[in-house]
Amino acid sequence: MTDHASEPTPPPHGLPAPAPAGASALPDGTYDGTVVLVTGGGTGLGKAIAAEFARLGADLVIASRKEERLKAARDELAGLGGRVTSVPCDIRDPDRVAEVFDAAQEAYGLPDVLVNNAAANFPVPAEDMSPNAWRSVVDITLSGTFFMTREFGRRHLAAGTPGSVISIGASYAWTGGPGFAHSAAAKAGVKSLVESLAVEWGPYGIQVNGLVPGLMPHEDMTADIRGNLDRATPAQEHASGDRQRELSSRQPALRVGAPRELGWAAAFLASPYARFITGHTLVVDGANWQRRGLVSPEVVTVREQMGRGPFEG
Ligand SMILES: CCC/C=C/C(=O)SCCNC(=O)CCNC(=O)[C@H](O)C(C)(C)COP(=O)([O-])OP(=O)([O-])OC[C@H]1O[C@@H](n2cnc3c(N)ncnc32)[C@H](O)[C@@H]1OP(=O)([O-])[O-]
Ligand SMILES: NC(=O)C1=CN([C@@H]2O[C@H](COP(=O)(O)OP(=O)(O)OC[C@H]3O[C@@H](n4cnc5c(N)ncnc54)[C@H](OP(=O)(O)O)[C@@H]3O)[C@@H](O)[C@H]2O)C=CC1
């Protein structure tokens, strides 16, 4: 019998690195002749998702508020193969949402796949949150997602055609999100919508799934979210430019996620290889959301974590 006690313990090395950028698990041309609409497809994770569909042959429509951003992303995504159209739109406005679908239909046809990726978020203690701050986040993240999904569903039901919706969520839909009460409540609503609509629209051939990213840093992160990452890492790590290593050491995977890992999951969920998966929310976060220690960490209030003074009403 081997005496394990005398063997040196190998150091933990975390989850293996992902396949290289540009690789795909799906066959070439999986999305040939398919139209994919991605909200917030001009930045960050939305752009990474759009890129994976484009590599597999999809025609893309990307929609968000800022035209400049959309144009830059459109040029970048067009280099990957398929055709790309961008349509400026605030998803809080159902009339503008209808116009996005009109524009998509005119360009390539009714989108076969809708990725609800656009969302809004910033950390703020609940007691400091203005009614308008609450409304902005809930209106964009939950109502905007519903308006997009509703328009997609209505058009497919009228045409008698199948389709696939993927709504991007967040793990605090299950756990709650101290400091992100508005976003966590909205994402819990998004998860619930996935479950309701998968059943309502299954009979019409429409799949509805959720997809949750873990920590996947990217260059487009807003100052608010970036500031939150800064809070998670000591100042000397920023100074030395080694924040990524510090962030990685705080994940069970011992690495952060790459945005393309979310893109691959989205491309799978909407593909012919996932036709019996609906009403499901897939978490791609290296098990970070299930993390518990043997011992509970000391409680630090959201106010303290954000370096805010006492609440003054
Ligand atoms: C980290 C874990 C997971 C991450 C998940 C993600 O979703 S990452 C994705 C992250 N990506 C994004 O979020 C991308 C899109 N996000 C955005 O464009 C902005 O964050 C937005 C939602 C504020 C814009 O919405 P809009 O054009 O409607 O904005 P507006 O300028 O009119 O402000 C509305 C209200 O909000 C208030 N307020 C704003 N900031 C703060 C703050 N830091 N503190 C307190 N309050 C704040 C502002 O004062 C105003 O209230 P007031 O004063 O009238 O009572
Ligand atoms: N990054 C992360 O660590 C995590 C992200 N997520 C989720 O992943 C998704 C993508 O996040 P990420 O890429 O990091 O964030 P970004 O801030 O890069 O992307 C948000 C996108 O939403 C668009 N958008 C915001 N408001 C509206 C609106 N009213 N109408 C239309 N488009 C809008 C923005 O474009 P524009 O400004 O042009 O309107 C932008 O392209 C979101 O759903 C987010 O909640 C979840 C967990 C963790």
UniProtKB/TrEMBL annotation:
Compartments reported by the entry: Peroxisome
Alphabetical list of InterPro entries matching this protein: NAD(P)-bd_dom_sf (IPR036291), Peroxisomal_t2-enoyl-CoA_red (IPR052388), SDR_fam (IPR002347)
Chain intervals with Pro residues compositional bias: 8-19
Keywords: Fatty acid biosynthesis, Fatty acid metabolism, Lipid biosynthesis, Lipid metabolism, NADP, Oxidoreductase, Peroxisome, Phosphoprotein
Region named Disordered: 1-26, 233-252
Family matches, as Pfam families: adh_short_C2
Keyword Nuclease: no
Pathway: Lipid metabolism
EC number of the protein: 1.3.1.38
Subunit and interaction comment: Interacts with PEX5, probably required to target it into peroxisomes.
Function statement: Participates in chain elongation of fatty acids. Catalyzes the reduction of trans-2-enoyl-CoAs of varying chain lengths from 6:1 to 16:1, having maximum activity with 10:1 CoA. Has no 2,4-dienoyl-CoA reductase activity.
Name of protein: Peroxisomal trans-2-enoyl-CoA reductase
